[in-house]
Amino acid sequence: MWVQQILLGIIGLSSGVVIAGGLFALIVELGVIADFADRTHTADKILLYEDCAALGGVAGNLISVFRPQMGYLGFLLPVFGLLSGIFVGCWAMALAEVLNVFPIFIRRLKIVRYSVAFILSMALGRGLGAFIYLLKRW
């Protein structure tokens, strides 16, 4: 019984490490952190930015898992909201830059006449996924 629990713990921890590594690799690959360093003219501190992004992910996971009580620290919620908004805005900026890849990809693969079908299928898939998610929640 305890061997099964230990094995499940190891698998869960390993899966979390892999997913977190993939997320931070995506953040770095999209150029969010490098873009920050470029815009603020602090390229010499890029490793510090990457460490802060990783620590933010770890802190977010710890808060998500353990759900600590805020108590008298409730005044920090606006700061957290501001930083979360900045993070989401940066993701939106990075993903908008990635969307420039789609027209190039479509032209290179010579699938221009099927582009409407691809876009429609992505939209329908997203809508169907959201519908199934909401259906299971009810």
Automatic annotation (TrEMBL):
Q: Which residue ranges does UniProt annotate as crossing the membrane?
A: 6-34, 46-66, 72-99, 111-135
Q: One Pfam family, short name please?
A: SpoVAB
Question: Which keywords are on file for this protein?
Answer: Membrane, Transmembrane, Transmembrane helix
Domain of life, per lineage = Bacteria
Q: Tell me if Transmembrane is a UniProt keyword of this record.
A: yes
Q: What is this protein called?
A: Stage V sporulation protein AB
Organism the protein comes from: Schaedlerella arabinosiphila
